[in-house]
Amino acid sequence: MGRIIEEIYVWRLPVRLYHWINALCTVALFITGLYIAFPLFNPPLGEAVFYRGMSWWRFIHFAFAFIFIANFLFRMYWALFGGDKYARFGGFRPWSPSWWGKPFLEQVKSYLFLRSDEPNYVGHNPVAALAHFLFIFCGSSFMIFSGLAMYGENNPGGFNSVWFGWMIPLMGGSYTLHWAHHLMAWIFPIYLIMHLYAVFRHDVVDRTSVTSSIVTGYKHKVEEEPA
Amino acid sequence: MQSNQTFADVFKAGGVSRRDFLKFCSLTSVYLGLSPSMVPSVVAAMEKKPRTPVIWLHGQECTCCSESFIRSSHPTIEDIVFNLISLDYDDVLSAAAGHQLEDVRRKTMKDYKGKYILAVEGNASTKDDGVYCMVGGDSFLNTLKETAADAAAVIAWGACASFGCVQNAHPNPSGAVPISDVIKDKPIVKVPGCPPISEVMTGVVTHFHTFGTLPELDRFGRPKAFYNTRIHDKCYRRAFFEAGQFVRSFDDDATRKGWCLYKMGCKGPTTYNSCSKIQWNGGTSFPIGSGHPCIGCSEPNFWDKGPFYTRLAEVPFLGSDSNADKIGVIAVGAAAAGAAAHAAVTAVKKAKSGSEDNDKA
Q: Helices A187-206 and A13-37: crossing angle, nearest 10°?
């Protein structure tokens, strides 16, 4: 292993905090969400008033959901106004054909083993940016909007019902909305697998210490060992 | 003249006391969700306004809406309502038939142009010019368009007229569409349910009669007074839901104890209706009260939303044995397999390039 020749401070504290809160919330939301769909445990026979078999799970789901939303909004704020060059939307322009051009194709080819060398990015590479946009931005937005629409269902005319209730007719009814929320939840474990794999692989192949960078904030450039 | 009678006149002629008439007005206001201060307006409307003529058409349907309507609760009062709506045309209930009856419809359309209510039970077949539903020698599609043209407002009775129901469930052989797809230029009140609750039906008619306007509608065009809340939120078994006490099979102890039917596929949490409030047959019971999960009959396309007795809908385009979780598990497995394969190729490539480097050295 070669000498570390450069330390780059990539992930500033707000980004790292966002990342870990988001990771915790996503896991908690996925597990409690599945439990709400399939309540496994049966309390012993007795008065309903003594048990919280479902309401606790729902409470945890809602509590984490609101943390998740606040965290998401904070990240949006940071991306737009944080002035953090590795955490903003800048450069991600999927509506422009040129964005899909050379850097993106190079990265895709590298992932498909069509190139031997790895393009090196300090922040997100274009493929990662696209994945984050689809899974994290679009996916989270959908889960937040559909979730708030369902949360507002028990209080017709209330804030959530007025501002997010339009999701219900959009999805063709409350049942379809629940179903879509449930189905879309699965993108998070899929994303998690791809994310962890990509991080570990980049760490092994590029040796940029990307894995520890989300704890420490620093990535490293390592001197190539003389052959 | 029957056509100029007010509700109050008909009550009197039928030997109903003033006291019972006022009781009826109060009950109607309650069903409409009005405040007690509105009762005098209901009384005034019933006393002064001539009855609103109603033309009641039947398309592709099973007549369960009519059955529900004539079995209204509180028999004495609801029977009066049934007798009192100026039901000028109803091909199921009318004594007249054939051309005679069709003439009555045309006469009402002419005499009360722009004033009558068109109540539609069932929906229209649109495939092959609507030949799959012929009523009175013409396609129901034509009759519907013709009768709707001069109506003040349209009421879509039941799941068929509102959302399509079983006729437009997959694969919809007759091209059945909800009437809102046929009638575009009239206000439509959707009163879904298979059938709707009778008091809901009479309540909607009375609202129009009383105020001359349609009731306040929700995003699906259903009257908010009856379809604003979910069955789940007013369900008397809700406590068992929150406690996590569920029926797991129809012959277990929990069934006898009347626990929550959520795991038996109850659609109460996603169904907007008044069943858990007004209930059925004079407040006798409702499906969940009788130990059966709600099937969500007042929701759009409820026939296509998977088995009635399981929680998760099947995914229609992927065969009959797949649901959201199976798709999810398969996709996660595919992602994991893809990552593993990619890792393997990476390792092989690396080993190869490593050995090449060694060879060079």
A: 140
* Structure tokens, A76: 């949006």
Q: Which of A149, A187, A219 is nearest to A4 (CA)?
A: A219
Q: Considering only CB atoms, which chain A residues are within 8 Å of B232?
A: 154
**In the structure encoding, which two tokens stand for residue B53, read together?**
């003529």
C-alpha distance from B279 to closest chain A C-alpha (Å): 19
- Residues A180-185: what's their mean pLDDT? 92
The H-assigned helical ranges of chain B are: 7-13, 18-31, 39-48, 64-70, 75-84, 98-111, 140-148, 158-163, 198-211, 224-227, 238-243, 253-257, 324-360
Beta carbons of B346 and A197 less than 8 Å apart = no
Check if CATH label 3.40.50.700 holds for domain B2-225: yes
- Report d(CA A195, CA B167) in Å as an integer: 46
Q: Does A111 touch chain B (CB under 8 A)?
A: yes
Give the separation between CA B267 and CA B271, rounded to whole angstroms.
6
Contact criterion met (CB < 8 Å) for A49 and B243: yes
Q: Are strands B86-90 and B53-58 parallel, antiparallel or unpaired?
A: parallel
Question: Quick one: pLDDT band at residue B110, thresholds 50, 70, 90?
Answer: very high
A197 touching B (Cβ < 8 Å) = yes
Q: Does A44 touch chain B (CB under 8 A)?
A: no
User: Other C-beta atoms within 10 Å of B40: how many?
Assistant: 11
Confidence at A196, pLDDT banded by 50, 70, 90: very high
A111, B312: Cβ pair inside 8 Å?
A: no
Give the H/E segment covering residue A187: helix A187-206
Return the residue matching tokens 């999960």. B293
Considering only CB atoms, which chain B residues are within 8 Å of A45?
A: 253, 257
Residue A117 pLDDT exceeds 80: no
Domains and CATH numbers, chain A: 4-41+50-222 (1.20.950.20)
Q: How far is B122 from chain A (nearest CA, A)?
A: 20
Query: Which residue out of B235, B332, B359 would a mutagenesis test of the A interface target, given it has the greatest number of A Cβ atoms within 10 Å?
Result: B332
When pLDDT is cut at 50, 70 and 90, the band that residue A75 belongs to is very high
Q: Are strands B176-177 and B124-125 parallel, antiparallel or unpaired?
A: antiparallel
Q: Could you give the ipTM of this predicted complex?
A: 0.87
CA torsion, ordered B159, B35, A149, A166, to nearest 10 deg? 60
